[in-house]
């Protein structure tokens, strides 16, 4: 059986020790489109030497940033073909501003295995600390595996965010680059779904798609720039569900509603009649 929830749920994966440099942060920010306005002071915060500002979304990739092999979906109680898997959701909460360089240790557990009938959802939760034991961030993510349901697990709750029934407080378009996925894959995600046309076609897509975590970071950065004065330190947390694919070169339309300390967000693809890209998006402000 590819998924055995009695083994998977609660399983702790091997701890990862990792490090990152200011150059890694710069590359990550460039992978999100930083530098598109190369003389703008706010934009240059993301690429300054030695101390580039760090978005909380960097925490989602920091432990695997230097990987050069395609990922494997092989955990205790879980064995799934990579071609069947897409990213389902992602959340990062920072407990202190992420420094522009450092060393850390991440521990990940499988916390849920949901049976959606024709598909399965595997949920992981990770905590990252520096080497002195100070908590840096907590991340929660899910993968959606087509054709892997029917193992008898619980269906899982609905975690949808209801957007206000009014005009958004802000709306802006964010273009992506045709080569965006090829650049972003240097941030540690070498899944051929994002670079190999034949692999993408075998997985059911007409062309390689943009990494979900790239879209996730792009939207967080765009909201930070447009509403928070390009100050990443004001972002406490960011979560989203991946509602559809984005192809490199397409333009995202981001809509934002203010709700106290939270910004409620939607992101859709302009090029395909506002096809959903991210849903249930919440940015929490410090």
What would your notes on this structure say?
This protein has a 10-stranded antiparallel β-sheet with strand order 1-5-6-7-4-9-12-11-10-8. A two-stranded antiparallel ribbon has the order 2-3. The mean pLDDT is 94. Helix content is 16%, strand content 35%. It is built from 6 helices and 12 strands. It has 286 residues and is of the alpha+beta class.
The count of strands amounts to 12
- What is the spatial order of strands in the main beta sheet? 1-5-6-7-4-9-12-11-10-8
> Mean pLDDT, as a whole number?
94
Secondary structure tally, helices: 6
Q: Could you tell me how far the N terminus lies from the C terminus, measured between alpha carbons in angstroms?
A: 44 Å
Instruction: State the oligomer.
Output: single chain
Strand content: 35-45%
Poorly predicted runs: none
Shape: globular
One letter per element, helices H and strands E, the order comes to HEHHEEEEEEEHHHEEEE
Helix content: 10-25%
Rg, please? 18 Å
Major sheet attributes: 10 strands, antiparallel
Structural class: alpha+beta
Question: How is this fold's topology laid out?
Answer:
Elements: H1 5-8, E1 16-20, H2 22-31, H3 41-44, E2 73-75, E3 78-80, E4 85-94, E5 102-115, E6 119-130, E7 135-146, E8 170-175, H4 180-184, H5 197-202, H6 212-227, E9 235-242, E10 251-259, E11 262-269, E12 275-285
Antiparallel strand pairs: 1-5, 2-3, 4-7, 4-9, 5-6, 6-7, 8-10, 9-12, 10-11, 11-12
Region (Disordered): 148-170
Domain Peroxisomal multifunctional enzyme type 2-like N-terminal: 18-147
InterPro entries: HotDog_dom_sf (IPR029069), MaoC-like_dom (IPR002539), MFE-2_N (IPR054357)
């Amino acid at each position: 059986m590819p998924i055995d929830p009695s083994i998977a749920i609660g399983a702790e994966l091997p701890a990862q020790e990792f490090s990152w440099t200011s150059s890694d942060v710069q590359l990550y920010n460039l992978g999100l489109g930083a530098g598109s306005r190369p003389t703008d002071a706010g934009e240059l915060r993301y690429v300054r030497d030695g101390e580039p500002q760090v978005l909380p979304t960097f925490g989602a990739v920091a432990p695997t940033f230097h990987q050069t092999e395609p990922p494997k979906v092989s955990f205790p109680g879980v064995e799934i073909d990579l071609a069947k898997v897409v990213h389902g959701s992602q959340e990062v909460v920072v407990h202190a501003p992420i420094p522009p360089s450092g060393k850390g240790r991440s521990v990940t557990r499988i916390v849920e295995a949901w049976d959606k009938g024709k598909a399965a959802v595997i949920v992981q939760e990770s905590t990252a600390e520096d080497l002195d034991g100070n908590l840096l961030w907590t991340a929660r993510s899910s993968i959606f595996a087509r054709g892997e349901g029917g193992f008898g697990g619980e269906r899982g709750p609905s975690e949808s965010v209801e957007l206000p029934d009014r005009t958004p407080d802000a709306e802006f378009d964010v273009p992506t680059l045709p080569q965006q996925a090829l650049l972003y894959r240097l941030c540690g995600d070498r899944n051929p779904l994002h670079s190999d046309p034949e692999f993408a076609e075998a997985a059911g897509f007409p062309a390689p798609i943009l990494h979900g975590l790239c879209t996730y970071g792009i939207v967080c950065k765009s909201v930070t720039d447009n509403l928070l004065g390009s100050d990443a330190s004001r972002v406490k947390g960011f979560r989203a569900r991946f509602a559809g694919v984005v192809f490199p070169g397409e333009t995202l339309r981001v809509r934002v509603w203010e709700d106290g300390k939270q910004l409620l967000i939607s992101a859709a693809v302009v090029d395909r009649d506002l096809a959903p890209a991210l849903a249930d998006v919440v940015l929490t402000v410090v």
